[in-house]
Amino acid sequence: MDHKERIRREESGLRNEVAYFGVFTALALIFSYVETLIPISFGVPGVKIGLANLVVVIALYKIALKEAYLLSVVRVLLAGFLFGNYFSIIYSLAGALLSLTVMAVLKKAGGFSIIGVSIAGGVFHNIGQLFVAMLVVETFRVAYYVPVLLIAGLLTGCVIGILSQEMLRRLTHWRVDG
Amino acid sequence: MKLELKKFHLKEKIDLQKKDWVLIAIIIFVAGLAFLMHHFIGGKGAGCVTVKVEGEIQGVYSLAEDQVIEINDGTNILEIRNGTADVTGADCPDKLCVNQKAISKNGESIICLPNKVVVTVDSSENSEFDAVAQ
Q: Which has fewest Cβ within 10 Å: A51, A58, A78, B93?
């Protein structure tokens, strides 16, 4: 790498993708931890804001999709081993992967703002978890929660979307050099 | 010196596209539909609760009779009182099933995921729906 190239990369912001991936993972993990400290109960078991999804949404818009997937999986595994259990890992993983896939599709389809993408992410996070719950307990009775989970996903996704939008506005000069 | 405060414009913060609104409308519509479906098909006049462990029926108990049932050799305790069923004890760490409200309406359920226990209110009147739903 010659001198000019190095300067160009330095000016553009990030030089070390791996280091930044580590920072993102740590941030997502911290958000997962902070969330376990918030004693807010929405009256329905399993509903939470999903602060860690903020990092995933930012990663989706700022880093490549592949890294966003990796970040999502690593975050779920680490948070699951630290704060959850075997079951919470399976539910989180199903929710996180479905959510990220839907968000990536909507982002690629175009026409959706980051808030819309995040709302879809929040809703499908819940749907993914509900689907696994149906498989585990071998009953469709959990469909009883569908309306609550849809609205909860809509609201939390909206909050995360607004936060992501504000963050991205302040990170305009920031991008990862692949 | 004049002090100017920048107003916080929430409308500017949330600039939703047309497709976003369509998405939100669809989600609310589906949620409303699911709610109505449950409300009307779920119906009233519940008669008994079915206890399932790992998808297999362990027992059917009447809601009319006050009783305490140990599910799965005591991993979960089910209490039936005044026509409602409530899980009052569980050996799982998160206790989500214990924190859930007591159930009484047809189709309502309490689920303990770690122990794979499902407690559902059933009534014999709309068994057709139950067969489909299973």
A: B93
